[in-house]
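Workshop exercise sheet. Pairs work together: one partner reads the sequence aloud, the other fills in the structure field after running the prediction. Swap roles for the next sheet.
Pair: D.N. / O.F.
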Amino acid sequence: MTTTTGTALRRIQTGNALSAFGNGFTVPFLFIYVAQVRGLGASTAGVVLALFAVAALVVLPFTGRAIDRRGPLPVAVAGTLLASAGSLGIALSSGVASIFASAVVFGAGLAVIQPALATMIVWCSTTATRSRAFATQFFLNNLGLGIGGLLGGMVVDPERPASFLLLFGIESAMYVLLGVTVATVRMPKGSHAGGGVGRVEEGAPEPGGRPSILADRAMVTLCVLGFVTFFACYGQFESGLSAYAVEVSRVSPATLGAALAANTAVIVLAQFAVLRIVERRRRSRVIAVVGLIWAVAWLAAGVSGLVAERHAQAVAALIATYALFGLGEAMLSPTVAPLVADLAPPRMVGRYNSAFALVKQLALAIGPAVGGPMAATLHVPYIVMLVLCSLGITVLALLLGRRLTAAQDDPLRTVVVASSKPAGPAGAGEPSRTAVPVQTA
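Structure field:
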C-alpha cells in the first residue's frame, strides 16, 4: 500500500468512526423522542423508522451508477449533507409531516453513504489488505456506536426536550465532519479503473448495468446469502429478538441492554484476533461456520425462553445469544464486503456495492415485519424459523464456494512466485514472475 492510499484510507476510516459516534447518540433514543418527547405516538415513531428503509430502497438503485460514473467521493459528500440535514430536521420537527420528510432525507443520505464509502475503501486497498480494511471499518463503527450510545444515555432526559436537540445536533455535526473529511481525501491515481478489483481483464468489453449483475451467478448467490444473513441477525435485533427476550424470556430492559453490550464487546475485543484466523481461510467456509454459530445462538435464545422461570439461567442464555452473534459478525466483516468487491468487474464496483446494500435494506425492512409479530405470538415457530435460516446460511455459503475462483474465495493463498523461464535461447532472458494459486486445506 502506497503512502497516498494509506493516508486516504486512514481519513476515510476516521470520518466513518466519527459519523458512527454521532449516530450512536441518537439511534437508541429515536423511538422515545418521536413517540414521547414530541408526543406523536408509537405508531408514528414506527413509521419514521420504516421510512429510513423505504428511502434507502428508493435511492440505492441509482446510487451505484452514480458512483461508477462520478466517483464515490462526490456521492459520499452528497450523502453526508443529506444525512446531516435530515438529522437536524428530525430534531426541529414538531409535526408528523415534517418529521416524515426529515426521516426520508436522513434515510436517503445514510443509504448513499454506505456504498460510496465501501467503494472508496475498495479503491484504497488491495486484495491483500482489503479484509483488514473492512474489518477496521466494522470495528470503528461498533466502537463509535457503543461510545456514542453510552454518552448519549448520560445526556438524554425525556423530561428535557433540549437534551434530545443536543443529541441530534451532535449527530448532524458529525455528518458534516464526515463530509469535510471525505472531501479532503486524495484518491490514488488509476483508482477509477478499479485498482485491480474485479475479474475482467484490461481491454475487455465494458459490461452493462443491472443485467450484468443478474447474470453473475456468484453475485446472485451472494445476494441471496446476504439477504438471509441480514434477515436472521440484524433484522431481528431491534424487533423479534428483543420482543422474545422481554415477552418470553422475561428479562428486563436493563438486562437486554447488557446483552447488547455483550454483543458490542465481543466485536470490539475479538475483531482483530478473529481477523488473523479468518483472513487466511476460504471465505465461503468462514461464512458457512458463521451460519452454524448463529444456529447455536438461536438455540440458546430458545433455551432462555424455556428456562424463563430460572431467571439467572435465562439471562445467561440470552447474553450468550448476543455474544455468539457478535462473534459471527466479527467473522463476516472481513469476509463478505471484500468478496463483493472482488466479484465486481472494473468500473462496476459501485453498482455491486449498491446492489448488495439494497439486499441488506430489504432484509432489514422485512426482518422486523416478520420477526416482531412471530416472536410475540408464535414463540417456537419463530426460533425454528431462524435456526433453519442460519443453517441455510451454511448451505448457501458452500454453494457459493463452488461458484468462486480460487483467488476470490481464498485471495491470500494466491501468491506470486518467481520462476526462471528463458525468453529465448538457453541462458538468455530474465526470470519471469508467474501468479501461481497455492491452496491449502
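Discussion prompt: The radius of gyration is 23 Å. What would you look at next?
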